[in-house]
Amino acid sequence: MTISHDVSGTGSTVLFVHSTVVDRRMWDPQVPALTAAGYRVVRCDLRGYGDSPVPDRPYDNAGDVLDLLDLVGADSAALVGASGGGRVCLELAARRPDRVHALALLCTAVADHEPSAELRAFGDREDELLEAGDVAGATELNVATWLGPHADDATRDRVRLMQRHAFEVQLAATEEFPAVRTPVDLSAITAPSLIVSGDHDVIDFREIATRLAAGLPGSRHVELDWAGHLPSLERPEVVNELLLDFLANRI
């Protein structure tokens, strides 16, 4: 199955992978800035998000993204991933370092992270709300958890729309299939990396950023004192500048 995607602009390929709170529409503010700078922007919806259907068998997100690179004719690309999408980008960069020449990770997850009490409490509460049929409550929990205090109402509405859609698509599935995740060998990653974290994010993602900055070659860690978990939506102009500066020196 080819995951849903879109392609804008021409030039070197930059492929965006969304957070699992939202879908590829989270990158709407980045597309015009990058295409204007001369990049070809590819955005995808992981399975069960946006326009990609839920999986009908065990699935491999990193493999799906690699297949998409083949489909759009990109021998290599810069990858930009947020949260769960960052975890996918890390898996692909470790598995196929020849296909990834730059790696930007925004508040990224990693496959082997042991969740904190705060993150476990969030997951437990989300499960309780969904099991009770309170999709609206679970959606509001996510909006409150993942956006920083400076996010405006329009941004909260956008995240609310995308998270609600993801819940509706996933809850409608008759059977749930697991994602195949490969352990990430950080030493296998050769791409230079930009690691962004938010001072108002859940502590797990700030700790992951510190760990990756110490373990990835040629890495630069930027912590944003105003940001929650989705800085590219909260203040897109700041993140666009960070991405363009990073990419200009690596493509």
TrEMBL record:
Keyword terms, alphabetized: Hydrolase
UniProt-recorded Gene Ontology molecular function terms: hydrolase activity
Residue intervals of the AB hydrolase-1 domain: 13-236
UniProt keyword annotation of Hydrolase present: yes
GO cellular component, one term: membrane
InterPro entries reported in the protein's UniProt record: AB_hydrolase_1, AB_hydrolase_fold, AB_hydrolase_sf, Epox_hydrolase-like
UniProt xrefs under Gene3D superfamilies: alpha/beta hydrolase (3.40.50.1820)
Any Pfam family: Abhydrolase_1
PANTHER family attached to this UniProt entry: AB HYDROLASE SUPERFAMILY PROTEIN YCLE, MONOACYLGLYCEROL LIPASE
Protein name in the entry: Alpha/beta hydrolase
Biological source species: Couchioplanes caeruleus subsp. caeruleus
